[in-house]
Amino acid sequence: xxxxxxxxxxxxxxxxxxxxxxxxxxxxxxxxxxxxxxxxxxxxxxxxxxxxxxxxxxxxxxxxxxxxxxxxxxxxxxxxxxxxxxxxxxxxxxxxxxxxxxxxxxxxxxxxxxxxxxxxxxxxxxxxxxxxxxxxxxxxxxxxxxxxxxxxxxxxxxxxxxxxxxxxxxxxxxxxxxxxxxxxxxxxxxxxxxxxxxxxxxxxxxxxxxxxxxxxxxxxxxxxxxxxxxxxxxxxxxxxxxxxxxxxxxxxxxxxxxxxxxxxxxxxxxxxxxxxxxxxxxxxxxxxxxxxxxxxxxxxxxxxxxxxxxxxxx
Length: 314
What we know:
By secondary structure, the chain is an all-alpha fold. The protein is 75% helix and 0% strand. The protein has helices at residues 4-26, 35-55, 64-91, 100-108, 116-123, 126-152, 165-179, 187-198, 200-215, 223-247, 252-263, 269-276, 281-310. The protein is globular. The N and C termini lie close together (6 Å). The mean pLDDT is 86.
């Protein structure tokens, strides 16, 4: 079985690259002026190449039932985490107008992208990584529909936000799998696409670390905010996600995705949500930094215990 030491060894490179990004920002080697251009390239070119390369050829995605479960759980479990965050926010003294919505969203939505992707790839590889991209469509829908409505207080849905590089790449990949032409996409084109995709991880994670260094100076930390976010993101929500992974009738590849998702810190995208839709970005910043730091200690144990409890093989 997977041991905590093996998990630490596997995921430590991700955290070291985050640290490297923070150091590069602190020393001004990675200037803030580069961030927007790099992330646009990652999100619109490199990540779609990675997604297509990993989706094409995986039998698990030929099952409409499995794909539906992946998207459905991505959507429903993310919003369940937000509901838990809403309750805990009330317990720690946050009311409407004092950051409760921002706390609920930032503590409830897990990091489903640039931290989760390399962890799933390192631990499980292949089919599980393809399944993660399908699962992430459900999380994207939850963030840009219900998440926006909660943060803004409006009833309108930002559908145009769902037309982006990763969603388009997943859609194209699944269409190719469905019609059975995915195995025919080979040769220099596939090799070049794969090479571009491999660059998505280090660049995105470096920028993530640099962004966290920027965010760390925005507001004085609040102990109740830190404790509440850790409780939601790294204790209560993992219990819910792991229970779903164990007892629902889903494919093992999706169970593996959920084990990693249970261990993830808060999503970086909630800072953007707060900035765009009238939330309190400083609260999201505290939640992200606190859960990311604490997750370095909790992640190996959540993944190890979850894998053993569910009965997955490494």
